[in-house]
Automatic annotation (TrEMBL), chain A:
<dbReference type="GO" id="GO:0043565">
    <property type="term" value="F:sequence-specific DNA binding"/>
</dbReference>
<dbReference type="GO" id="GO:0005829">
    <property type="term" value="C:cytosol"/>
</dbReference>
<keyword id="KW-0804">Transcription</keyword>
<dbReference type="InterPro" id="IPR000485">
    <property type="entry name" value="AsnC-type_HTH_dom"/>
</dbReference>
<dbReference type="InterPro" id="IPR036390">
    <property type="entry name" value="WH_DNA-bd_sf"/>
</dbReference>
<dbReference type="InterPro" id="IPR036388">
    <property type="entry name" value="WH-like_DNA-bd_sf"/>
</dbReference>
<dbReference type="InterPro" id="IPR011008">
    <property type="entry name" value="Dimeric_a/b-barrel"/>
</dbReference>
<keyword id="KW-0238">DNA-binding</keyword>
<dbReference type="InterPro" id="IPR019888">
    <property type="entry name" value="Tscrpt_reg_AsnC-like"/>
</dbReference>
TrEMBL record, chain B:
<dbReference type="InterPro" id="IPR004839">
    <property type="entry name" value="Aminotransferase_I/II_large"/>
</dbReference>
<dbReference type="Pfam" id="PF00155">
    <property type="entry name" value="Aminotran_1_2"/>
</dbReference>
<protein>
    <recommendedName>
        <fullName>Aminotransferase</fullName>
        <ecNumber>2.6.1.-</ecNumber>
    </recommendedName>
</protein>
<dbReference type="GO" id="GO:0006520">
    <property type="term" value="P:amino acid metabolic process"/>
</dbReference>
<dbReference type="InterPro" id="IPR015424">
    <property type="entry name" value="PyrdxlP-dep_Trfase"/>
</dbReference>
<dbReference type="InterPro" id="IPR004838">
    <property type="entry name" value="NHTrfase_class1_PyrdxlP-BS"/>
</dbReference>
<dbReference type="InterPro" id="IPR050596">
    <property type="entry name" value="AspAT/PAT-like"/>
</dbReference>
<dbReference type="GO" id="GO:0008483">
    <property type="term" value="F:transaminase activity"/>
</dbReference>
<dbReference type="InterPro" id="IPR015422">
    <property type="entry name" value="PyrdxlP-dep_Trfase_small"/>
</dbReference>
Length: 159, 389
């Protein structure tokens, strides 16, 4: 059954009949499994990995390390959830190390991102410090290499 | 100055050039070809393995190694064989690192065969088997296996070809070109025959990791077979390392010693840097292998089903990355089929007759090709067949 997920993970558009052909699992079972995973929230959504550099889109991304004063009884959860709700925030992770949260912010320009960090993010209760790293170039995203694929150097017929 | 007048090697001259050559030349000149004709993985070598080789080069792995190969590599190979198949070889004197299975095959035959000895080759077979028997001074005796039985190694058919001169049976499992993976039962029957008639089993297991419908049975693991088995294997297919030319041969010590003798005077050693890469492959590339095998398996299912829908039936290939469908319904010979398919639809497959007369009426299709290309190839084959079937 995990086979179904690994097919979907590499191609979110794979239809149940195609998945059935690839895995040898009956199409009905594929449909049922996917429906169950969707209901349980195992499958969160179907996504497309876009190479924004190639698209020529001028979006700006920054990774921001956030230091948080944890709350008695709640730890980092409330603060993390409050931060996660901002539209500008793409990802929020609690990490080990010197800072507490590592978040990904996206905006139309450096100024927009800087303003968001300065005015909104640092202003969230219990956020005591931020450190912003602007993304310069993506080489691999979501397990997908964004560099040019290696050319196939095999000869076309070989016994 | 007169040109040389004495004849060149009669043995080599008598060996027909690879039937694939003409077809290969044609395919090379064409653009936009989807190739199902390649006998190697479409994955590049896992990056961790390549990185370790680069590092090794910077550290000076540019020398010869000992003839047998790096001891660490032989230890890892023997541990891997023990873990996966429960077979025991001593790294010191029963395991030899070679420049691919190709060299191992040549060593095995040269160490086994006396002039005129017969080596039975079940067909369809890999293209190098019969020539290598001839180069070693032996006589290849081909025996056709039955497609209706999934090309299983039928000990009865082989028994019928055994003579007092039979020195060995040479076969690959899983098979190039049929994809047939041999069962423990059939290998056991063959081993019993080998013992009764006193011949060797030269077992090419280069595709052992690429087995989908069950687990691979190593010939050496079959009861009674170890003493008369030469086990050939390597890194090319499992780890996508074809160009590194690194493989190994394992055999009982007296035979291993003879192979070592030939190897030390002819090859000297397998490439040092490739041996380092092979060490890294055994140490760390298991997840890569698992991923590649899962991928081949998906393609196999989709492709075999697609062939079936086109009316090109084939026994389910249990291993390797080949399907060997019958094309008889098209009314064409395998050469004509392959040439016309290439010319009209730009899909390259290998005509079955290059794998022996019993391969006629079939073509070998490799599904070591990206899924979208496989699907496109099936479509083109459908167009090709629509006017012929």
């Amino acid at each position: 059954m995990r086979e179904i997920l690994s097919v979907l993970e590499s191609d979110a558009r794979a239809t149940p009949d195609r998945i059935a052909a690839l895995t040898g699992i009956a199409e009905d079972e594929v449909r049922a499994a996917i429906a169950a995973w969707e209901a349980e929230g195992v499958i969160r959504r179907y996504k497309t990995v876009i190479d924004r550099d190639r698209l020529g889109e001028d979006r700006v991304t920054a990774f921001v390390d956030v230091t948080v004063a944890p709350e008695r009884g709640r730890g980092f959860d409330d603060t993390a959830e409050r931060i996660a709700r901002f539209r500008e925030i793409r990802a929020v992770h609690l990490v080990s190390g010197a800072q507490d949260l590592r978040v990904e912010v996206e905006g139309a320009s450096m100024k927009e991102v800087a303003d968001f960090v300065a005015q909104k993010l640092s202003g969230v209760d219990r956020v005591t410090a931020t450190s912003t790293h602007f993304l310069l170039r993506r080489y691999k995203d979501d397990g997908q290499l964004l560099t040019d694929p290696e050319p196939d150097q095999r000869l076309s017929v070989m016994p | 100055m007169a040109p040389p007048r004495k004849p060149l090697s009669r043995v080599v001259e008598a060996c027909p050039p690879s039937g694939i050559r003409k077809f290969f030349d044609l395919a090379q000149t064409m653009k936009g070809v989807i190739t199902l004709g390649v006998g190697e993985p479409d994955f590049p070598t896992p990056w961790g393995v390549r990185e370790s080789a680069i590092h090794a080069l910077t550290r000076g792995a540019t020398t010869y190694t000992g003839n047998s190969g790096l001891l660490e590599l032989r230890e890892l190979i023997c541990a891997d064989l023990a873990a996966r198949h429960g077979i025991t070889y001593r790294p010191a004197d029963e395991c030899l690192v070679t420049s691919g299975v190709s060299e191992g095959l040549d060593l095995a035959l040269r160490a086994l065969v006396n002039p005129g000895d017969e080596v039975i080759v079940p067909e369809p077979s890999y293209v190098a088997y019969q020539p290598c028997v001839a180069f070693a001074g032996g006589v290849a005796v081909s025996v056709a296996m039955d497609p209706a039985e999934g090309y299983r190694l039928d000990a009865d058919r082989i028994a019928a070809a055994v003579t007092p001169r039979t020195k060995a049976v040479l076969f690959g499992s899983p098979s190039n070109p049929t994809g047939a993976a041999q069962s423990a039962e059939d290998l056991t029957a063959l081993a019993a025959l080998a013992e009764r008639e006193d011949f060797w089993l030269v077992s090419d297991e280069i595709y052992d990791r690429l087995t989908y419908t069950g687990t691979h049975t190593s010939t050496a693991a079959v009861p009674g077979a170890w003493d008369r088995t030469v086990l050939l294997n390597g890194f090319s297919k499992s780890y996508a390392m074809t160009g590194w030319r690194v493989g190994y041969v394992c055999a009982p010590e007296p035979l291993a010693a003879l192979m070592h003798r030939i190897h030390q005077y002819t090859m000297l050693c397998a490439p040092h840097v490739s041996q380092v890469a092979a060490i890294e492959a055994l140490r760390s590339a298991e997840p890569d292998v698992t991923e590649m095998v899962a991928d081949y398996d998906r393609r196999r299912r989709l492709f075999v089903k697609g062939l079936d829908e086109l009316g090109l039936t084939c026994p389910e290939p249990g291993g390797a990355f080949y399907a060997f469908p019958s094309i008889r319904a098209s009314g064409l010979s395998s050469q004509d089929f392959a040439e016309q398919l290439l010319n009209e639809q730009k899909v390259a497959v290998v005509p079955g007759n290059v794998f022996g007369p019993s391969g006629e009426g079939h073509v070998r299709c490799s599904y070591a090709t990206a899924l979208p290309l496989l699907e496109q190839a099936l479509e083109r084959m459908g167009t090709f067949l629509s006017s012929r079937m």
